[in-house]
Amino acid sequence: MNIILFGPPGAGKGTQADNISKKFNLHKVSTGELLRDEIHKNTELGVKIKSIVDRGSLVSDDIINNLIIKVFAEKNFSNRIIFDGYPRNISQAKSLDLLVKRNKQKISCVLSLDVKKETIIKRILGRQVCTKCGLIFNKYFKPSTKDSHSCDEKYLSKRSDDYEKIIVNRFETYLNITFPILEFYKNQNLLHIINGDAEISMIYREIEAIIASLET
Hints:
The chain is α/β, with parallel strands linked by helices. The chain has 9 helices and 8 strands.
């Protein structure tokens, strides 16, 4: 199965995608991670992407779609993908539809985390990323502990885009550009709305039940 996990920046998509990928043996595709990897390589494209991200804007559809095409080229990922952060607008959604059909695959369901702006701001301001192992924590909701994280605390850092003014800008961008594609998937009977303000474990249990029902 292929699944799309949808929601505004800071909705907790990464955490839920990690849980889902482990439980159902899916390959997580995060456009955020794909973009950060390109930035880390310090390529010409990576430098361009960094300047866009630092402004709190979205990179072009062409850049994102080309990264996704590379993912579909990996045969081991066939019908085993969970998309985290893609698509973000109607154009990307239509491109994904064409790409899925071209590769003789399908989208099994779209999960949308519905979260209030106030919750989003707190989640993102508290977000910490380990630069050594890549794990993501939150000092308010999911702090790093000795049991959950073996790396030294000195490796925990904020991302360059995790500041309130940029957070609000990204949330408004989501409402104005990205949110309308929910209707696109609703018309395909693929959409499931989930209360993203609930506890992480409760959100996951609801998601797990939805995915499990697809397998029966």
